[in-house]
Write a structure and sequence with these properties.
- The chain is built from 20 helices and 16 strands.
- By secondary structure, it is α/β, with parallel strands linked by helices.
- Among the domains are: 131 residues, Rossmann fold (3-Layer(aba) Sandwich), CATH 3.40.50.2300; 166 residues, Rossmann fold, CATH 3.40.50.300.
- The strands form five sheets. A five-stranded parallel β-sheet has the order 2-1-3-4-5, with helices on both faces.
- Helix 2 packs parallel to helix 3, helix 18 packs across helix 20 and helix 19 packs across helix 20.
- It is extended and about 90 Å long.
């Protein structure tokens, strides 16, 4: 049952709304003034509020503004016997879903209520979907270093200040940039990302500022650059330490003048963009070498934010492993898997030169290699010698099924070696039926000459050799 809060000083209106709404099976609460309504909204958490404009004490527009400060998503429908266009426009600007004049028309009221509740439901569904999709894009950790990053993001995000995010590869600099954008006043506008290291030097200017048709060979049509695409929102310049000096000069001009000029164009285009930048390089050293502009550095480095390497926050490994386990299993449609405390401790002790990205890849390998529902130290040990080979697979073009086959074959081979090719003991150790293990051995050609269990094998695989 949906809950509706009515805030109106007229008893006759409250009585009329009670009959209409309760007949439609809504749970209805009432307040006769704004202060009481705000207090009651906190207690009953309504799904919708019907709010009168003219009331003693604080009026409906001020109540609306204070409600919006507490909840952006709560739908509020304004009602008034003194309605005019100016009031309706002002209410809409402050976040009202709709505006209804008095006396209230029953049918129009019910249609508006249903539309408002449906819009709120769809908004909630979209928010849940976004959180599910972006669940792997959260800044995870309970260490003091991560807590400090969250604190800085909370303070910096609502401002227009530029932020320079530094840290080693794989630490999560992009996640920090996304969190800053999500917490900013530009969150409903686009966040456009540019990886400066991935774009050839002769194309970076076209990528950033766009180009006019015919401005260079291959420019067969006009192109809108990233600055224009991000207008009103956020532009994230990742790996900015790899940007050419020529492009740096143009970025500096864009930051100073809030204008860009397309390659081959002669018109200045005004843009409203908040720039966030990230790098794994020491830009002060790059400045001394003449590879980075000192003036651009100071333009970008208004708020410096450093993301620490994983080895400096080992206490976060357990939390990260758990989150990655759940995410990998969910994305791949696998049954949920757990990991033992000993295995987590072993993972926490590693150096992780590739930081969080490397840890995530390792967890994904473990999930795929593990035949059961629990990952333990034995699986870590069995994968130690093969880790280099498995790591190389990630750099090759390969279908997911092919990767799983290779990983499963490597795991079974190592387990057989650990158990001196005793098939019965190996099957027991990895918790599968011996006949199932024989089938996989045949599939992957995992047979050893002179195996003492030769006579135990089914006839169809007894002569298989590798």
């Amino acid at each position: 049952m949906k809950t509706i809060l009515v805030i109106d000083d007229e008893q006759s209106i409250r009585d009329s709304l009670r009959m209409i709404l309760e007949y439609e099976k809504y749970e209805v609460h009432f307040a006769s003034d704004g202060e009481t309504g705000i207090s009651l909204a906190q207690k009953v958490s309504p799904d919708l509020i019907l709010l009168d404009v003219k009331m003693p004490g604080i009026d409906g527009l001020e109540v609306l503004q204070r409600l919006r400060q507490r909840s952006v998503d709560l739908p509020v429908v304004m009602v008034s016997g003194h309605g005019n266009i100016e009031t309706a426009v002002e209410a809409t600007k402050r976040g009202a879903f709709d505006f209804l004049p008095k006396p209230l028309d029953r049918d129009k009221l019910l249609v508006t209520v249903r539309n408002a509740l449906q819009a709120a439901r769809l908004s909630g569904d979209l928010k849940q979907l976004r959180e599910k999709v972006e669940g792997g894009r959260q800044i995870l950790g309970a260490s003091s270093a991560i807590s400090e990053i969250h604190r800085l993001i909370e303070r910096v995000a609502p401002t227009e200040a530029r932020v320079l995010i530094t840290g080693e590869n794989g630490t999560g600099k992009e996640l920090v940039a996304r969190a800053i954008h999500a917490g900013s006043k530009r969150a409903d506008k686009p966040m456009v990302e540019v990886n400066c290291a991935a774009i050839p030097p002769d194309l970076i200017e076209s990528e950033l500022f766009g180009h006019e048709k015919g401005s260079f060979t291959g420019a067969t049509a006009q192109r809108i650059g990233k600055f224009e695409q991000a207008d009103g929102g956020t532009l994230f310049l990742d790996e900015i330490g790899d940007m050419s000096l020529q492009a740096q000069a143009k970025v500096l001009r864009a930051l100073e003048e809030n204008t860009v000029e397309r390659v081959g164009g002669n018109k200045l285009i005004t843009v409203d963009v908040r720039v966030l930048a990230a790098t794994n390089k020491d830009l002060q050293s790059e400045i001394k070498k003449g590879a980075f502009r000192n003036d651009l550095f100071h333009r970008l480095n208004v708020i410096p934010l450093h993301v620490p390497p994983l080895r400096d926050r080992r206490g976060d490994v357990a939390l990260l492993v758990k989150a990655f386990l759940e995410d990998v299993c969910r994305r791949n449609g696998m049954a949920a898997k757990t990991i033992t405390d000993d295995a987590v401790e072993r993972l926490s002790a590693r150096e992780w030169p590739g930081n969080v990205r490397e840890l995530r890849n390792a967890v994904e390998r473990l999930v795929i290699l593990s035949p059961g529902t629990q990952i333990d130290v034995s699986l870590l040990d069995s994968g130690a010698e093969a880790s280099a080979e498995v790591g190389e697979w990630f750099g090759r073009p390969m279908k997911f099924q092919d990767f799983k086959d290779k990983a499963e074959a490597a795991f079974i081979k190592r387990q057989l070696e650990l158990h001196k090719w005793n098939v019965s003991k190996t099957a027991e150790a990895i918790d599968i039926q011996r006949s199932h293990l024989y089938t996989k051995m045949k599939r992957y050609g995992l047979m050893k000459e002179g195996d003492p269990e030769e006579e135990e094998r089914p006839d169809e695989i007894r002569n298989t050799r590798h």
